[in-house]
Every structure is written in structure tokens, then in C-alpha cells.
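Could you show me just one protein sequence together with its fold in C-alpha cell form as a worked example?
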Amino acid sequence: MSEDSLSLRTFILGDPPNAALSQCVASVTAALGTSLFDSRHFDWSSLAGEISEKLEQMFDIRLTDILAAAWKDYQALLDCADPSKHTAEETINLPMVDHRIETTLKPCLEIVVGERQPIRLTFEIACELELKGLVAKVQDARVHALRIGSCRAKGSVKCEGVLLIKRETRELDLPGRIVLGHGISIKRPAVRSVEKSANHRGQSEADHDDQLLEAIAL
């Protein structure tokens, strides 16, 4: 399995994603209808197609980005990147404790109608992953490959504070070796740090508050 196939879109929207996307598009068009003074002359069918395309891109969240943020202070990985313990040529297969990763993203969809002020709608995408049987292949301060025994995911999507989607998957088997291309970078510790208590519990958390902007011009 390659890095390119590791997206959270299926976890969040389901497979196929049609029903969930339609629900999100309906919420956006309803919000637009209340924001525009005269919406009778808009081609809502064409607009809905553009909104659906942008939303699907918005939900295409790479698993490697989530893991990189969650593992930036993971002591076991920091030890693997410590040059006083491991040379750059050494390959380490690191079994990692079963743990949970939580992430929240707050992207925006901005719609421009002629000369009017842009209409911005804020989404909140929350996802929780429970990983079991995880082994990371580490070399030269980078995670180059992963083996994941199984994964369970929970996800929700809100638009302007209104809950649109809430999903929980069954336990998913992810057999095989996942190659990460350029890999996930691990910072090399200059001074040994004390391991955080969350790591003792096998739990990592990553919160992303950056605004990801998608624009549609009409």
C-alpha cells in the first residue's frame, strides 16, 4: 500500500461518499440562500456540483499529516532519531503501543458572487483513530514505512456549528506494508526530554486549527 492511498476521506464520508456529500452540499446551499438578497436567478444545479467537488477535496486529509503532528513529541520515536543512540545507517523496526489519535480541522469554504463580499462558511472536521499492532520502520530520523494491524475510526462534520455527519467504523484490518515515500520526519533531540504522560497511556493528540480556504467564484 502506498502513501497516496492513505486518506481519511473514506472514514469521514463513507464509501461511496455520495449521501454524505449531498448532505453537506444541501447545508451550504441553504446557508447561501439566506445570505443572498436575490437567489432566484442562480444556477443552483451547477453551483451544487462545484461545491461538491470543493468539499470532497476539503475532506481529502492525508493520514501521514495526522501522524506527523501526533508523533512530534512521541518519546520512543525521538529516541530512534537520537544520533547518540542510532547511526544514520541503522534501520529500526519500532513496535508502538496501541494508541488513539484525535485531530480537529477547521477549514473554510469561501464563495464569491460577482462584486459582493465573499460568503465564508466554516466547517469543523473531527476524527479519532484507534491504532493497534503498529510497527514503524525508522531510519535516519524518518519513519519510512508502517505496518498497522487494525484501525477503528470515528468522525464528525459540522458546518457553522450544525452537525451534519457523525460516523463510527467497524475495526478495519490494514494488512501489508505501507510505504511512506519521503517519510515522516522526526526531530532530532538535542537534549533528552521527559516523556509526556499521554505517551505512557499510548495516546497521542493532534489539534489543527489552521484555516484551510477553498474558494468558488461565480
The chain has a mean pLDDT of 78. The longest strand covers residues 119-132. Residues 3-217 form one domain. The helical segments are 9-13, 18-35, 44-58, 63-70, 75-80, 197-200.
